Amino acid sequence: MREPTASWKLLALAALLPILILVTIDVSIGGTTHPESFKRFGNAVLTSYVLMGILLLGNLFFYADSRHRPMAPLVGMLFAIAVGIGISYLLISNDDLLLEANSGMRAQMLSNIVHLLVSGTAMVLAALLAIGATFTMITGRKRRVLFEEEE
Amino acid sequence: MDSMLEAAIWFWIPLCAVPLGMWLSISGISKTPGRILCGLGFILVLFSSWTVPASDSTAAGHLLLSIVAPSLLMLYGIHGMVFGGNVPVGKLDSTARWSGGFAVIISIIILCLMHWYNFTPLWRDGQINPYWIVFWPTFLLFSTSLSSAAAIAMVGYGRDRGGEAMKLGLLSLTMTGIAVAAMLFDGYLTTADEFREYLWLAAADIFGTVVGVGSAIAAFALVIWSYEKSLPAPGNSPPPSDDEIKHVVALANTHIGGEEE
User: Fold this and answer.
1) Which of these three, B127, B145, B177, is where a domain ends?
2) Would you call A55 and B19 a contact, using CB atoms and an 8 Å cutoff?
3) Are B120 and B160 found together in one domain?
């Protein structure tokens, strides 16, 4: 059997490189960096962490079904989500650290959720395009004859 | 009615109803009501810019409604392209591959026209929907990135897949070309400067979302692992008693033997 020549590092590099190239072109054309992108990164991390945590909390329902409904994982996951919400609260309410062009903390938090809804939709659509194109390539080839006896 | 309450009733509660309905449906607690709840919530979110026009958040619902048509066309095209090929189940006619490819190209062209032509989603007072400039660079960046990774995976894990990998690389290059064009040429209602600024934010969004989702999954795995680790190890079962051994031997004897061939 043939050994795969790709590794996770190579795949991660292939995923990162086009983004880095586009950002480099962006800098070379515009000549400026955007400090606001740090705030966006921070808000995206915290919002996606909390929302994904809530979705996984729902997933614990299936896990609990096969384990006589223990409370410990539920409490543990609730604690993990609470930590995320607490950090979000602290960082957004702390001066100008994560507050974007919004009037206050509540507006920022709601804006983060809506923003994630839009960017998440864009990412899901892009993923469907890329995965669909990959499967199209895989299924596009005619069936190979592996052994002469098959003919 | 208070504007906050209106936004809660017509946007936020329907938005929460979507994952809740999906969960009810997937968990099997109530499949049909779950699907109805999910569908109803999604429809209310799509039309929220009419039901609560005062709320800024509903711009997201308006944007989702604007991209529903090209998204569905893209999904139809992908389905045709995949199942028009050599698949063991659900195979479509081979022409579905071509019509599917055509549909995907048209959907990408429509998205481009939404940036460069007057298909741009307009929100209040003829102004561009503020989330369009969030969606478009994020879609371009992420599809470029994933197509590139898929091309490397195809050539790395597959056998004699160079041609297919090249085609995936071409898709990645096409999306890169569209992004570069948007950086250089003004859109219908957005400038190239604005696009460049939002491209940075889109990159930050993508990295942030990946890190956040990864952290949540890691926290989830940690919680499950620590709980499983705290459980006592299962004890050894006692050896069978004489009666049990006799019973097993009797059962075995009834199944051993038979006539010789």
Assistant:
1) B127
2) yes
3) no
For residues B118 and B135, membership in a common domain is answered with no
Which pLDDT tens digits describe chain A residue by residue (151 residues)?
566 666 888 899 999 999 999 989 988 887 677 778 888 999 999 999 999 999 998 888 777 776 676 788 888 888 899 999 998 888 888 767 777 776 677 888 889 999 999 999 999 999 999 999 999 998 887 766 666 655 4
The pTM (predicted TM-score) of the whole model is 0.86
**Same-domain status, B143 and B217:** yes
Contact B227 A76 (CB under 8 A): yes
Is B233 within the bounds of a domain? no
Interface confidence (ipTM) of the complex: 0.87
Among B67, B87, B144, the residue with its CB nearest the CB of A18 is B144
On the CB side of B55, CA atoms within 13 Å amount to 28
Asked if A138's CB is within 8 angstroms of B204's CB, the reply is no
A41 phi/psi in degrees, rounded to 5 = -60, -50
User: Between the CA atoms of A24, A30, A33 and A39, what dihedral angle is there, to the nearest 10 degrees?
Assistant: -100
Same domain, B166 and B218: yes
Domain that holds residue B43: 1-55
What does the block give as tokens for B103?
């549909």
